[in-house]
Amino acid sequence: MMFRNQRFAQTAPLTTALTIDQLRSVTPSAFATEKHESRSPRYTYIPTSSVIEGLMREGFQPFKAVQGRSRIEGKGEFTKHMIRFRHESTVNVTGDSVPEVVLINSHDGTSAYKLIAGIFRIVCSNGLVVAESTVGSLSVPHKGDIVHQVIEGSYEIIENSRKALTASSAWQQLQLTAGEQKAYAEAAHELRFADSEGEIATPIQPAQLLNPRRAADNGNDLWRTFNRVQENVIRGGLSAFGRDEMGRRRRVTTREVKGIDQDVKLNRALWTLTEKMAELKGVGAAA
Length: 287
What we know:
This protein has two domains: about 20-160, no CATH class; about 180-280, no CATH class. It has seven helices and eight strands, in the order ααβββββαβαααββα. It has helices at about 20-25, 50-55, 130-135, 145-170, 180-195, 220-235, 260-280, and strands at about 60-65, 80-85, 95-105, 115-120, 125-130, 135-140, 240-245, 250-255.
């Protein structure tokens, strides 16, 4: 089966909740009126739109939505989608980060309902996904009372996201040496660019991942180091000169990570990497 996730455009600022009409435009598969024909009779069809409405009644508001595309004819309106929610209780959260619930689902069999803890960093409009090792995640199969399970799970996940914010506060107090930052960037570089054999072909250097994109990210603490690297890994736009197969010099520029699966995988891996660095510096994971 060939499947490729690709992000659709965001239709509203990340500081403004999306309306149902905006969600329908960005993630039409969340509003599919039936399951894909490939699903068996055991598959309980509960449209994501019903879950969205249930979450909104409970005070969870959608702030970002992306959807994948399928190369398989007829699956485009059923494919994987990801929606990030914030609860009304987080409106007055202080600092530059807000806890989120990340909901992933599809109606073509490529995903159950998944809930993942997330953090939205206001200063750079970056959505971080917290590693499962830190606060856990939840998978809801397509059976039973799905809406109730997702709502109950969302309350648990938003609390876990708050725990992740506690970890980030501790990381702001951890100063890294130049050597520690270099080691961190090298590990992140491998996560982003190594192939299945561990080989890295890109001319992009690990040190480039440490470059700040704004004055607020200057600093040697672990939190800002993580945010610089995370944004450079996910947003792309890094350039360097390399050689093509003919040995000709060419400029290489990294692309933004747009696939839902790759986005989540990289974000989780970077969060875990940051946890490990914190542990080496004497600070454990979020409790």
